[in-house]
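Teaching note: in complex prediction, the entire set of molecules is handled at once rather than each chain in isolation. The prompt given to students was simply: 'Predict the structure of this complex.' The entities are:
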Amino acid sequence: MARFRYTVAAFVLAAVVGAGVMPAAAQTPKQGGHLNVMLREDLAQGFSIHETSTISTVWPSMPCLSNLVIFDPLKRVESADTIIGELAEKWSWQDNYKNLVFFLRKDVKWHDGKPFSSKDVKSTFDMVRAAPDAPAKLRLSPRKDWYANVEAIEAPDPHTVVFRLKRPQPGLLAMLASGYSPVYAAHLTPAAYRAACIGTGPFKVKEWRKGEFIDYVKNPDYFIKGRPYLDSLRYVVIKERGTRVAALQAGQLDVSFPGEISKTSAEQLKAAVPQLVITPVGTNVNDNIIMNMKKPPFDNPKIRLAVSYAIDRKGLIQAVHQGGGVPGASLPPKPYGVWGILEKDLAALPGYGKPEDMKARARKLLAEAGVTPQNPLRVEMATRAIAIYVDMASFVINELKQVGIESTLKQIETAQWHATMTRGEYQIGANLTGIGVDEPDANFYENYACGSPRNYSFYCSEQVAKMVDEQSQELDPKKRQQMVWAIQKKLEEDAARPMLDWRLDYFTVWPHVKNMVPHHNIYNFGRMQEVWSAK
Amino acid sequence: MATRPLGVEVPGIGVVLRRPGAWTTLTRFCRKKPLGAAGGLIMLLMFLTALLADQLQTYDPIATDAAHTLAPPGGEHWLGSDHLGRDIYSRIVHGARVSLIVGIASALLGSLLGGVIGLLSGYAGGKTDLIAQRVMDILQGLPLLVLALVLSASLGPSIQNVVIAISIPIIPRAARVIRASVLSIREMQYVEAARAVGLRHLRIAFRHILPNTIGPFIVLCTAQLGSAILVEAALSFLGLGVPEPYPSWGRMLSVSAAEYAQKAPWLVMFPGLAISLAVFGSNLLGDALRDTLDPRLRGA
Amino acid sequence: MKAYVAQRLGIAILTLFGMSLVIFALLRLAPGDIVDILFAAAGYVDPQARAEIMRELGLDQPFWVQYVEWMRQILTGDMGKSYRYDLPAWEIIGPLVPVTLELAALSLIVSVALGVPLGVISAVRQDTGLDYVLRVFSLAGLSMPSFWLGMVIILGLVAWLGWIPPMTYVSPRENLGLHLIQFALPALAVGYRSSALIMRITRSSVLEVMREDYIRTARAKGQSGGVVIWRHALKNAVLPVVTVIGIEFAFLIGGLVVTETVFNLPGVARFLVEAILWRDYPVVQNLVMFIAVIVILSNLVVDMLYGVLDPRVRYGN
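The expected output is the structure of the full assembly:
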């Protein structure tokens, strides 16, 4: 492990010289090598991806585990067309998208040597959806709702698995392709994954030194022959943000953490070390405003809409993200996603026009609701006590002030945030939402369905619920796209949860890191089997 | 930090200021303790800044400005602007308010509570003293920042709670110092005389002994002020201190500052210098006061 | 002497017992618990699952049962299980201890190496320009927040040299040079800060000693100034300096919290902050007790040293 800049420089130089002699060599993947990867905090629930919703667990755990299917690691944009097999060799939709059949690889072994079979798949997803006959229980299962439409999972033989659905749902495959959907070993308890990791992935955990690092070594029995390229990986935990970025700049880290590098950081890094490779990508994480519709004043749609009109989206992107974000509705816009509303339609939605016009509209709406400069609205704006939330909230408060809504900021301790929101103990909140996969079902059911625990604003519209169910069953992608656009428009017009922007990441690697393709979604590209080092 | 009592008590002699006129005292202090005078001047400026923050500010310290983010120091923003376009100078000016309020309130609260405990336990002696001393041991055994950390996590972030969290660790230090000086004064003749005349205990404690502990008390407060400001900054830095949107020096240094440090070093430099200057001032002043008011405490 | 030590130890145990009550109560008073944090990381809340985890961790028990259980564990030498890692707490804390002790020791060395000579020089040159400069230099160290100093060091290094000390722990057996480099900067940052107190006490003790008759006699007898000061004055100043070092130790551990975080050193102090934020009761409780034991022991040792160094001090009331 190179700890000094000059060692790194020497290696880079050697690589450059080497490449000069054999130009073709630079493009042929090289076996062997080691990379140090940035990690923001230690694992929250060990390697048990199914029990968390944080990139801090998914990113360092993915090299150990495998999915049935996954988004092609080498393709930046994720869509139904980029899904490739992992533990499943092939799959097919049957019975008009009501049965999803996976044909599994036969040559797969767990890291402890036991053979992999359909039983593992069934037991994993029965646990995740908390089926009554599941062999074990997950401590928590945050993505249970993704599988609400699964009637049963069957394993007719060791190499076939069938997901039987209640109704057609083509979007299910995309959810199974997320980094959030690994397969656990049936012969282990979920608790075992909190302490260690027995997976089928390209790397085996060698050591997890708590709070310090996770060391991986190549899995020689990995089912894809010739992969992984690297011999070893180390995920280094650095809690202090300034130190983290400094370590990347000094060459102690080769790869950044997804979603970590802001536009300004990237500019600083590039200025200091011009050879760094920086790729702006989407994150599938958005900033949004939640308003409690069960309580006044935000039970009044006019006031909600006024809030949406008042916030200058472009100004926010400039101030809070220094330009490192893109406007969009409830699904990420092109090219960062496939389902997002088109730019021209976006321009017609609340909050996207000229700031002065928008603020005038907001004032007019507020006046209609009885809020005037003489009689201003006073509210408490809740946000999570994390800098990225607070920055956004500070900006929004200033915007609302300009239309006559006086808000004070109330920071809620990180651990209390979800509970407070779920219980509806707030008026208005500045919130961040990350979505595991760019798939309308995952997003709409989680955040806008009546009664969903993550529907913090308690938005409940029969009309929208019907539209969501309809698009979920639609088999024609073109038609489905139209329906999804219509839903997004309706959600913004109802100010269900006004979207402010989609955050961008400036994923950074040193030039010797090859085939590390960041996706427009932070959660799905951490497998590392294609990554190699030119050092 | 008290003188170490050991088995042998080190007597702290309470020296009451003679009164040759305030102005003369002041000029003599300045002449004899130039560093202390400089510290006093720094503290005076800090107080004025905190007091007149609303008049001194050039911008609303919490107003964001999307068009002028990370502006360098200059005519528009004297000390530059932060990543949200907030004016650093105005935030530092208002930060003085938070730092001083928290610093003074907690130094005073801690010293007062500790002082009362020290006064009573030193005067009463016996079992009361023994128990009070053990309780103080418990509080003192914990490193200041660690205790403040647990306390502020327990109480949640708000100005009052930060004050409580910082003042509790000060209590045992104060109790020790005041107790030591009470022990020595207790045996003095005029106290014995008061007792002989039959004055009630509380009355003796507060009438005769208290005034003589004022010297050590002032020294103590000043000495704790610096560390209280530092602990507040550290807590805010760790996200446990005074919450946004109040500009606090410690919080100005957390997360975003480090992130933008290379492009905008003023984000890191100015709040850090503000903290250092305030603590420096109170340390200088504290040192000089200690030498002047209570020579026996020198060095402790 | 023996009776005195026994008495001191008795008091220490009583103090520790009281401390255990305080820390136990404080943690339970803190809003939220580990389960809230697990759900926060999962992004949802489910009351039923919550109750089950509480039961699993024994958090559904009444407080006094939890406390008695903790005491039972301590007395049997068991440090309990970390809620977060589901591992014996000692297994996690153990490897962190030497890192913090080494950093503390190095910082202490730095602060003595810096504080004592500066103190002597500034005493000898009392009220000269040099005295003021040294005092300002030393007080400036005491006035800078250690996290800020650390931050400026790291950011400055990377900005100017493109280099920072290693971010993962390098054991001395693996690479001694690199190990020392890794510890040098944080030790300097913390040590500079703590040196102020040592310098101050050295200065005042040397000043005091220099006024004593025998020093004047030695000088009169023609011994050169430097020899007199270093030989006699310093010898007599050792006592108060040792005292301050004892006090300093507790102070130092507090300063390490942020320094370890900024320099990413895997020590006790950094881990403690993390464990507090995670409400990992067994880890926090036992770590705080551990630090308290060290502080109390170091105070005891200092008092013993006091006796050795100064025969005038008698123990006992």
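Point out the following to students. The mean pLDDT of chain C is 83. The radius of gyration of chain C is 24 Å.
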